[in-house]
Amino acid sequence: MTQISNASILPKFAQLTIQGEDAEKFLQGQLTCDVTKLGLSYQAAAIGNLKGRIEFGIWIKKQAEKQYDVVISADCADALQAHLKKYGAFSKFETSAPTPIYPCVLDNVPTFSHKDDHNTTEDTQAWMQCSIATGNYWIVAATQGEFQPQELRLHQRGGMDYDKGCYLGQEVIARIYFKSAPKAFLHYVQGTGEAPSAGDKLDKIQVVNAMKNDDGFIALVVARPEQLAESDLSILDLPAALQADVARAK
């Protein structure tokens, strides 16, 4: 296997608040999830492009009536803000400037906090480890437009709704879901050597996220099962809900 230079840079995240009379209606036409069902817990979701690939991987919660908090990789925050301004030009809502928010693990669940005491390397590393083990991928600038939501098992995490109506990329995403299935999809693996960077390819296996550990690295990758079988990577178990077939149940 080709060895990649160590990707030890810790991820950083930002929050944008979207609020106003048309906030829910606008977001419903953008996001893969059903915005009307959001609550106070972060829900993984995505904004697709016209090719049906994830342009912005986000976490979103309904903070108050007509107010939504969105968390995104910090290197994508300005692009998301520009996207919201472009597509929401005729909708009544306001978008805040991006502000830092810190990844942490609470009750064994990867989440985010505004508290400065979570702004530590240890918290971020714990979040990365927990996120990779649970399929809680994060999209960075290098992987924008690379993956289809179904490839990343977003539908198995409640981040997609196939009955909600139109949103960006919906036609392509729905066609894949109802008429075919991704041949490559998300896996949790252990590898040797230096940790690859997001978006790197190990032969035909594409890295979503990775971090170094004592035995080499752990990673979330998108690959065909037969490609993994022929590689030097060891497949680890994702949570039970993410071990199901990515294809639509017949």
Automatic annotation (TrEMBL):
GO biological process terms held by the UniProt record: iron-sulfur cluster assembly
Top-level taxon in the UniProt lineage: Bacteria
NCBIfam families: ygfZ_signature
PANTHER family: TRANSFERASE CAF17, MITOCHONDRIAL-RELATED
Protein name per Swiss-Prot or TrEMBL: Uncharacterized protein
Species assigned in the record: Psychrobacter fozii
